[in-house]
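Incident log, support desk, overnight shift.

02:14 A customer reports that sequence design results differ from what the structure should imply. Their input is reproduced verbatim below. On-call engineer (initials T.W.) acknowledged and began investigating.
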């Protein structure tokens, strides 16, 4: 587990699930694998997103990275959120145990999740978000629309 503090006022924890097989580059990819960012919303919605990502991984050699952004109130220091970091880490570990594919996860403790997400993502990132589609736009759909408007490629994994 690797903890660091960024210049943008975020505290990050990197949790990696050790792969059973090494990450081998695909032919002609110059040692780079397709990075797929999966936004953690809820356990079940994120699992739906990881199922989509596992299909991408099988076809395109995608490497999924789960991003869990946790908003820490301004009244608390970033290093001491209202929820213990160990609890957030256990949520990721539980997700990794049920995930259909190997994952890397990053927990980001921040003040403003939308701003931190924009700072974390590379331009034109591929992002998968799990959520429910309904008559009224869900929180996840609104996040997907904002990210798409920012120039990212977004896949919405709908729960049925």
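02:41 Re-run completed on a clean worker. Output:
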């Amino acid at each position: 587990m690797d903890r660091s503090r960024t210049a943008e006022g975020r505290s990050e924890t990197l949790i990696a699930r050790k792969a059973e097989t090494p990450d081998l580059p695909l032919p002609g990819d110059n040692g780079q694998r397709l990075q797929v960012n999966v936004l953690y919303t809820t356990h079940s919605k994120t699992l739906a997103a990881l199922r989509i990502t596992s299909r991408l991984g099988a076809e395109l050699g995608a490497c999924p990275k789960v991003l869990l952004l946790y908003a820490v109130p301004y009244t608390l220091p970033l290093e001491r959120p209202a929820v213990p970091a160990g609890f957030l880490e256990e949520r990721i570990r539980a997700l990794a145990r049920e995930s259909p594919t190997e994952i890397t996860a990053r927990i980001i403790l921040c003040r403003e999740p939308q701003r931190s997400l924009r700072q974390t993502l590379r331009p034109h990132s591929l992002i998968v978000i799990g959520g429910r589609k309904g008559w009224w736009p869900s929180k996840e759909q609104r996040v997907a629309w904002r990210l798409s408007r920012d120039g990212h490629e977004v896949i919405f994994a709908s729960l049925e």
